[in-house]
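As promised in the previous annual report, we have extended the structural survey to additional targets. Below is the entry for Pectinesterase.
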Amino acid sequence: MRYLSTETLVFCTQDVRSYPPQDYAAFLDYAFVASDEIPANKEQVESWFKNNVGPLNTREKNLDPALVTAEKAAKVVKVMQDGSGEFKTINDAIKSVPTGNTKRVILYIGAGNYKEKIKIEKNKPFITLYGEPKNMPNLTFGGTAQQYGTVDSATLIVESDYFVAANVIISNSAPKPDGKRPGAQASALRISGDKATFYNCKIYGFQDTVCDDQNKHFFKDCLIQGTVDYIFGSGKSLYLKTELNTVADTGITVIVAQARKSKDEDSAYVFVHCDLTGSGSGTYLARAWFTHPKVLFAYSTMGNNINKEGWNNNNHPERDK
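The corresponding structure token record, generated without further manual editing, is:
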């Protein structure tokens, strides 16, 4: 089975979770996946992935020349709260990246809680946030929709292209909405740039955890947690081997609110070999937030918390089609 189109996987990176930062630059490159299909057998996914993501020098002719140049000139910048790196905060490290950046900049982030609201502007592409798999840094902030608006409440906002995150926790520390406080929804991540990838990341929130805003994105081996519409937006994204954990709530719980507005709009969310876990009961896979949502779950495991109806028409019966 093929999902969306082959271009969905054009930007998949080498799985770099286990590489030390000094070796990371050599492996942080982008794959061109031709017409290979994601296997139905979950045990075959890793070998399929490795077979389709080879060294940069084997695929240069198929890639954006600017990307090839950026990866060949990659450098590592350390962010350490104890002062042993070039910077103590992630924001200071990002400020050091020049406007119109043309080189891959890997921000190696030491362990700890980084209480920062972070935004990577569109004019700073090729940035990577990289943590240690066994000691992942936690990027956290308590912004809410009342303060910033929903999409700008996110702890991490990425508007630039070719962004990568590996082994990091992204969380919003605002309390769970209680239905009484206006604007209590709070995002952890907004990803708006094109060709972004997330490996082994844990993303925590309640309502509106991930704003998968627009353009193409790839998530692999991640955990995303929330209550209502905790993956939402108009992205064209593939989620592979990712856990979607729904936190029990007194009201309705929904995993996805996809914002496609017409049959001609090129956006969709595809979940392959994902584990749908959580507490409570009656969680909907997705609701018809707008008129033409496109959401696909394939080869995925669903817990007892999932509503047997699967989908919710958002009180618009005409959207059942």
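The mean pLDDT is 89. Helices lie at 21-27, 45-52, 65-72, 90-95, 145-148. These points will be discussed at the next consortium meeting with the crystallography subgroup.
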